[in-house]
Design goal:
- The structure holds three protein chains of three kinds.
- Helix content of chain A is 72%, strand content 0%.
- Chain A is mainly alpha-helical.
- Chain A has a single domain (6-25, 51-270), classed as MetI-like fold.
- The longest helix of chain A has 37 residues, at 172-208.
- By secondary structure, chain B is α/β, with parallel strands linked by helices.
- In chain B, strand 14 and strand 15 (348-349) form a beta hairpin.
- In chain B, helix 5 runs parallel beside helix 6 (188-205) and helix 9 (250-259) crosses helix 15 (458-475).
- By secondary structure, chain C is an all-alpha fold.
- Chain C folds into two domains: 17-73, no CATH class; 94-314, MetI-like (MetI-like fold, Orthogonal Bundle).
- Classes of the chains: A mainly alpha, B alpha/beta, C mainly alpha.
- The interface between A and B is medium-sized, with 18 and 29 residues.
Chain lengths: 271, 544, 315
């Protein structure tokens, strides 16, 4: 298999994941440490990426920001899968029934609310916060996974080995878990990486407009929002968090594409 | 036609070899075809017969490397410019494909698609092309009052679509028509109509025809010349009569032998109590609403069918696609709800309000048509074969399971180590053996064979039929042998049921039904089956 | 066809009703009383009650839902708690910025994506394909608001071709107004164009592998002609789906981008309303956006029937 397709993506993802993990144990500086005198420092041997308008170390901020982004995105994708996949499998198992219709219509309904609108409504009621971002992105992920797993499951339900399983007396639940799920995991993994990268973008967007992660917790979107007013004088402050987002998302997308090629049974024979 | 010089072939392939991404597909093919003659190319899947056709049209997939010379009507196709080739394709050379369901553009009307072909090669107005298209469609048997040109492909049946594809191919009266398995995807009666149409068109227009097929019987009485292919090579070629007389290559003999194959089997001694007893069975499907607030109309796929199968008996169920035979089989297996009647297996009802008992489920199993979709690709063979053990009241221990799996494998002629492999490591024939191993692991009494050999090449099919016959002889199994292919059913069943529009229209001893069919539909079915003509069959039989 | 249309219309209506319920219930569970919030901490109970009556807050929830939903139907969105002006007037002005922005961005992304997708598919594996795929990979990864900041940095600050933000209003002339929407539209369009290009390409490649493309070639059509005449329309079916979904992303994206460029659109209105707890405005704007999304989905369904004759037959 063409390992080179997966390699760049894996490297980028690995880089940001380890940065996030390391930040739990150690960062070059404390991100809560405000030192107005040391603000807007250029990169040097002490502050590798310089400091921001409060004199906080940019590298440390980025590392903690990675952790926020990744945590929000992972939980949101988890919510999407946890609810979406069983819903999709149920709809497929009961295709054509009122239950199927109900699940799919509910999906369509959620699709009418972009994640941002959900976040706006939640914020209007409960005030802003990272949990809002997680819920908003999570809810939006549910129909994505429900549709995907329903569609994929439907094509597998048509295959003869499902008939054979039915002849052996297996019920819908057992068939879904034994035969359907293992055959759609590849798709789910690939979609998972895509939704993960979309989650990171969405979290950044929500935090940017103040609906997501709240200060003082560093987040990439928040950092960009702070840098916006300073863009005339200190454009580099906008550069680093933006690049961090781009590289993480790029890495995840490349990984997703690579995984899809790798896991696609149609391409497998070429190996 | 000016170039009707005798002995000057219309098409000549000289040492044509083809590689796709480095894999050799064709190896030094030499073929000739005179104007107005019919060449049959016969081979099993993977023999390179379709790629030969695409080589002639110069429509090869990416990564193809073609060598050798292909001459057509005085031109060398192999070094012709793409624009010139486009002028020839569809104009001097037409092509008909195997899959009529997908060969037409779903978003264009049939008139548009035929007219496009005409407008491409002739400077005629849109209106003229449209009128010509109407004429061509009439000629291929789609009268305009019944099939207006504004019809879309999805509104036509498979046979009708194939007629449209043929209309596109012959619209400009090409000198050469290439038909790549044009009838394989169709029912027998449709197949014979399409064959008839092709024969008629070729004769009327004096077209040369290359007819590509896996089925010797289909071409035997059409082709002037025959070429038998295997693994990218032409094993034998020449006039049809000579090829059948000589059959010098062992493979050709095997191919012919396989199509005439009769498995050895002992007829069952009929016991008084039937194993399977079907009485007035009705299956219905809801259909989409016709009107906004109307009730959903129902389609009755199986209409009050009754029949029995005795222990050890092998019964054939024959019918064309859409006749309800698959619905019937699923209802018998208890995986489809029924709307009336009853099915009794060894004295137990299959469709009761309660779940089926383990004991009843154990007694029946099934083998499906498609060896590729019959298995979960994520499981190993051992687990695949062991699946029916789920119905046993007491799940056997792991060690017991293993013994049972190995025993099953051995009975179908596979090795013990095959249990640890995944399904994609096996060929179509081997997979069908695994399907049979799965079906017999619980020692069932009835096995439903739903087109179980239809997807296999003839030589493999013969082996599987032998295996089935041997298993029945050894274990007294009963079979319900569902097939659209009458020749298969003839050699392996005691009795036969003929099904049409959800009803059984004729039943009786296989031999009686085949020799003196009473029902008109049965007669039509039998007449439509392509058969090797008696003389050829006699010659071939002499070889065995 | 009529059957299909009717079914779609029913779904459209049902979705809107359920959506309005969801919006109303979500926002109505909010703790705190808008009337006392508006009047401040020192307000007299009498004044608060009077205001509650004026705003209709003393009615039951069901009555309030019905009067709100009924008002929406008549184009009456209620009265802003904070500004005491009809919400519909506020929304109308803001819509005049947000809607053109979203359409402008959609147009740009289609104009970029179609040629790029067709080019990439027809030269699969070639230099052009690789380059286009590389650029779209980047386009997918760039958050549009950051891209917007970069555009401001380059075109407004360094090159000073455009102003960094603000909207002069349509009164100042069509081209002047459009110019001020250009950078925001580009920022919105680029990531969407990347998605669309990739969908267009893969959809075309799928169609190019279909049997009927071989039929087209066997007729004598050149590769190019077969692509234009037979592949493109078939490839449009999945592209339409994405196009419909994109509109909702564009609307949402517009809300964020308006913040970067200080555009007086719906996005800014929503954030101001959240800050001042002017819930009736939030409610109405969210509902309006949902309506837009649902309507676009409906139009996409109609477009399907136009592209694909298989959906047209009522059979």
């Amino acid at each position: 298999m063409k390992l080179r397709n997966i390699l760049p993506g894996t490297l980028l993802v690995f880089l940001f994941f380890s940065a996030a993990l390391i930040s739990y144990l150690w960062t070059p500086f404390d991100v809560a440490l405000i030192d107005i005198k040391a603000r807007f420092k250029s990169p040097d041997t002490i502050n590798w990426l310089g400091t921001d308008h409060f004199g906080r170390d940019m590298l440390s901020m980025l590392m903690v920001g990675a952790r926020t982004s990744i945590a929000v995105a992972i939980v949101a994708v988890g919510i999407g899968m946890l609810f979406g996949v069983p819903l999709g499998l149920t709809a497929a198992a009961k295709r054509g029934s009122w239950l199927d219709e109900l699940i799919m219509r509910a999906n369509d309904l959620v699709f009418a609310f972009p994640a941002l609108l959900i976040a706006i409504m939640i914020t209007a009621v409960y005030g802003p916060g990272a949990v809002n971002a997680i819920i908003a992105i999570g809810i939006f992920n549910i129909p994505v996974f429900a549709r995907l797993s329903r569609g994929a499951a439907l094509s597998i339900w048509k295959r003869d080995f499902i008939q054979a399983a039915k002849v052996s007396g297996k019920g819908a639940v057992r068939i879904s878990s034994e035969h359907i799920l293992p055959n759609i995991t590849n798709l789910l993994i690939v979609q998972g990486t895509i939704q993960f990268s979309l989650g990171i973008l969405a979290e950044a967007g929500l935090s940017f407009v103040g609906l997501g992660t709240q200060p003082p917790i560093p987040s990439w979107g928040r950092m960009l929002a702070d840098s916006q007013t300073l863009i005339y004088t200190e454009p580099q402050l906008a550069l680093y968090p933006g690049l961090a987002i781009v590289l993480t998302v790029l890495g995840l997308n490349l990984l997703g594409d690579g995984l899809r090629d790798w896991l696609d049974p149609r391409l497998r024979h070429d190996r | 036609m000016i170039d009707k010089v005798l002995a000057k072939p219309l098409l000549k392939l000289t040492d044509v070899s083809l590689q796709i991404h480095g894999t050799p597909i064709l190896k030094r093919i030499n073929l000739e075809l005179l104007a107005g003659k019919v060449l049959g190319i016969i081979g099993e899947s993977g023999s390179g017969k379709s790629m030969t056709a695409f080589s002639i049209l110069q429509l090869l997939p990416e990564g193809s490397d073609l060598s050798g010379v292909i001459e057509f009507d005085g031109h060398t196709l192999t070094d012709m410019q793409e624009t010139r080739l486009c002028e020839l394709r569809g104009n001097a050379i037409g092509m008909v494909f195997q899959e009529p369901m997908t060969a037409l553009n779903p978003v264009q009307s049939i008139g548009q698609q035929v007219a496009e072909s005409i407008r491409l090669h002739q400077a005629v107005s849109k209106k003229m092309a449209w009128q010509q298209a109407a004429v061509v469609l009439e000629r291929v048997g789609l009268p305009n009052d019944e099939f207006p040109l504004s019809r879309f492909p999805h509104e036509l049946s498979g046979g009708q679509r194939q007629r449209v594809v043929i209309a596109i191919a012959v619209a400009l009266k090409p000198q050469l028509l290439i038909a790549d398995e044009p009838t394989t995807a169709l029912d027998v009666t449709t197949q014979s109509e399409i064959l008839h149409l092709l024969k008629k068109l070729v004769q009327e227009e004096n077209m040369a025809l290359i007819f590509i097929t896996h089925d010797l019987a289909v071409v035997a009485d059409v082709a002037d010349d025959i070429a038998i292919m295997r693994d990218g090579e032409v094993l034998e070629s020449g006039s049809t009569e000579r090829v059948f007389r000589e059959l010098s290559h062992p493979y050709s003999q095997a191919l012919l032998g396989a199509s005439l194959h009769v498995p050895e089997r002992i007829s069952a001694s009929i016991a008084p109590a039937p194993l399977l007893d079907v009485k007035d069975l009705v299956c219905e499907y809801p259909m989409p609403r016709q009107r906004l607030f109307g009730l959903k109309p129902v389609f009755r796929a199986v209409n009050k069918i009754s029949f029995t199968i005795a222990p050890g008996e092998s019964v054939g169920l024959v019918g064309e696609s859409g006749c309800g035979k698959s619905t019937l089989s699923r209802a018998l297996l208890g995986i489809l709800p029924v709307q009336g009647g009853r099915v009794m297996l060894a004295g137990h009802s299959i469709h009761t309000s309660q779940a089926l008992t383990h004991e009843v489920r154990r007694k029946m199993q099934v083998v499906f048509q498609d060896p590729y979709s019959s298995f979960n690709p994520r499981h190993k063979v051992a687990r695949l074969i062991a699946e029916p053990l789920f119905v046993l009241q007491q799940t056997p221990t792991r060690a017991q399971q293993k013994t049972m799996v190995l025993e099953s494998l051995q009975r179908v002629g596979l090795e013990a180590q095959d249990a640890d492999k995944y399904i994609h490591e096996f060929s179509g024939g081997q997979r069908q053996r695994i399907a049979i191993a799965r079906a017999i692991i619980n020692k069932p009494e009835l096995i439903v064979l739903d087109e179980a050999v239809s997807a296999l090449d003839v030589s493999v099919r013969a082996q599987i039929l032998d295996l089935l016959a041997a298993l029945a002889n050894d274990h007294g199994l009963s079979y319900l042998f569902i097939s659209h292919d009458l020749s298969v059913v003839r050699n392996i069943t005691d009795r036969v049921l003929v099904m049409q529009h959800g009803e059984i229209v004729e039943r009786g001893d296989t031999k009686t039904v085949f020799d003196s069919p009473q029902n008109s539909y049965t007669r039509a079915l039998l007449a439509a089956v392509p058969r090797l003509s008696d003389s050829i069959a006699a010659q071939a039989a002499g070889f065995k | 066809m009529i059957h299909y249309l009717f079914k779609r219309c029913l779904i459209l209506l049902a979705t809107l009703i359920v959506a309005s319920l969801v919006v109303f219930v979500t926002i109505e569970v909010v703790p705190g009383d808008p009337a006392s919030f508006m009047l401040g901490l020192n307000a007299q109970p009498d004044t608060v009650n009077a205001l509650r009556a004026e705003l209709g807050l003393d009615q039951s929830r069901l009555q309030r839902y019905l009067s709100w939903a009924g008002g929406l139907l008549k184009g009456d969105f209620g009265i802003s708690y904070t500004y005491r002006t009809p919400v519909v007037d506020m929304v109308r002005d803001r819509l005049g910025v947000s809607l053109p922005l979203a359409m402008y961005a959609l147009l740009l992304s289609v104009l970029i994506a179609f040629p790029a997708g067709v080019l990439a598919a027809s030269r699969r594996g070639g230099v052009g394909d690789t380059a286009i795929m590389g650029v779209t990979q980047l386009g997918l990864a760039i958050p549009n608001f950051w891209f917007a900041m970069l555009l401001v940095l380059l075109f407004a600050i360094k090159l000073t071709w455009f102003s960094a933000g603000g909207f002069p209003g349509w009164d100042s002339g069509f081209f002047v107004a459009m110019k001020s929407l250009t950078l925001p539209a580009i920022a919105l369009a680029l990531p969407q164009a990347s998605i669309l290009t990739r969908v267009m390409r893969s959809s075309l490649l799928d169609v190019l592998n279909e049997d009927f493309m071989r039929t087209a070639r066997a007729k004598g059509l050149s590769k190019r002609a077969a692509l234009w005449k037979h592949a493109l329309r078939n490839a449009m079916i999945p592209v339409l789906t994405i196009l419909g979904l994109q509109f909702s992303f564009l609307l949402a994206g517009a809300i964020i981008i308006e913040n970067v460029f200080f555009l007086p659109g719906l996005g800014r209105l929503i954030f101001q309303s959240i800050a001042s707890r002017d819930l009736i405005v939030v409610e109405s704007v969210v509902m309006l956006l949902v309506f837009a999304v649902v309507l676009v989905t409906f139009m996409v369904d109609l477009a399907y029937a136009w592209v694909d004759p298989r959906l047209r037959g009522a059979r």
